[in-house]
Design a protein that fits this description.
heterodimer; A: mainly alpha; two-stranded antiparallel ribbon; 13 helices; globular; B: 352 residues; alpha+beta; 2 domains; 20 strands; elongated
Amino acid sequence: MIAERPQGALARLTLLYPAAVLLVFFVIPFGIMLAVSFFRREPGGFYLVEFSLANYGNLFTALFGRVLAFSLLISAFCALLCVAAGFPFTYLLTRMPRRRQVVWLVILVSVLSLSAVIVAFAWSIMLSQTAGVSNLFVRLGLLDRPQSWSPGFWALTCGMCYVAFPYTVLVLYPPLARLDPHLPEAARTLGASPLVTFFTVIVGSLRSAIVAALVMVFAFNLGTYLIPQILGKPQHWTLSVLITDEAIYRSNLPLAAAMAVFFMGVSLALVGMAMLGGRRRPGGAA
Amino acid sequence: MPGLFLEKIEKRFGGVVAVRDVTLEVPHGRLVCFLGPSGCGKTTLLRMIAGLERPSRGRILLDGEDITDQPAHRRRFGMVFQSLALFPHLTVAENIAYSLRIRNVPAAERRRRSEELLELVRLPGYGGRGVSQLSGGQRQRVAIARALAIEPRLFLLDEPLSALDAKLREEMQLELRLLQQRLGITTILVTHDQREAMTMADWIVVMGTDNRVHQTGTPLEIYRRPADAFVAGFIGTSNLLPGRLGEDGRVTVGRVTLRVEALPAGALPGCAVTLSVRPEEIPVLPGETAGENHLPGRVTFVRDVGSSVEIHLDCGGMAIVSASTPKNRPALRQGDAATAVLPPAACVVLAA
């Protein structure tokens, strides 16, 4: 279907609505942040309106670089884990009878409704020495004594993946549900075992959907702010934590704004690169 | 026993019976067609042969070996799906050589074989293209080549031509049949198109909406001697007239009594029967004439499509259609009085 070109004053008026939403909620706030990132900080006050590149110059510290790299890496790592676990999960989900699919989707969506605070504290209890799952492993004879696994890198990974997993499934669901069920069947009749079929046909034909899911979940993970503070040690704090620190506790809004703008630029560049890589197809097909 | 043998196959989905008690033999090198309306279970039967569904009851034997529980990927059958199911992320050559790659055939051998198959389906030089760059007919050929790549023991076709336009479909029917004859490959074709079945098949299995096999036979046997009213109505067009069998072996239809040459086995005088007469077997005479098996009436419609002429008659409340070639076209127009003649040899009596 091709949308008709809007005609007349009324039609043009309807276009104003999305334009206004975009302007009020995205363009203006971002414009303000961009502007503030060039302002000068006034110690003890707010900021002075004057143009300076000093904030961006101040970004290039070892701490900022390390935190930026860690934020990008943990977001990418968790996105990989989520898609690796979520893809087969979603595939099996789409092969279920409709009624059972709905039950699973409702459970997943209800997980999304949990606040990050609840999720983070639940994981910190589950991974704690006194009440955590390690006690269960001791009972089962797998461990000698209970251990504390939180805070730490793996605790943070668990928490972030837990929040991102339902999101991953929801992103992967439409392309997997649309997959022609005859594709895997054709592979079967051509001699591929179910496992070989999964990797050569299902993963293969949905490569672009997988890349899209990786990018979406990666971007979603970049915004993580609460979970690293509860489940991670200070060296695991993400850039979002650092920005908040700068903005609220040190009252350095111009520097925080510069960090946020730079962070966004780097993320956008990475996302763009991934999208370009995912679009390429064999045989030169468009 | 060489060939494919189905023994008392039944398939249920929950409480619904999809295929009911099918026993069937497909001899080596032949093309057998499962023909029936949608929902008759013909595709389910094919999927059971392919190993994509498990029969609820019965056995499938290939050359005497029981393959009922053999998984699909071990059967070495080639199947062409209705949606074709070409792999969108692979090139034409990669699609065709997929089954060879799975079997770890060396790359050089794969290339040689896919070029050979592209030659066979008359698409030489298309190996490097993407599937999305092909037309419907070309995709069809690629799907056929892909299914033939491993030299399958059985070639299964599930309504493979249904996505093509009418003209291309007719061409592909011939081409596919000639290919099958040249390779001598045992083939099962599923279709709802009786013309396609009659064009291509050595043997037709007619299935009905009651999920049973109604008749098996050569195309002409089924056309000339349909086993029941369903087959007569489904294969081609037929005049189906309700009647009653008399003491003298004649059939009374409406107010006229007709002589017929053959009666179904076990037909008793007085029982209700259906008379089936093909339109092309019925000559129409102008005016009201009397004689053996003459049905006087009036022309209600003339369908003249150039290559053939159909004359629709109302003979004392019975609708009768006659078909003739333009050469033998009777000079009749709508509203004219006319008489349909039902030759005794053309009257097939079916149990009602």
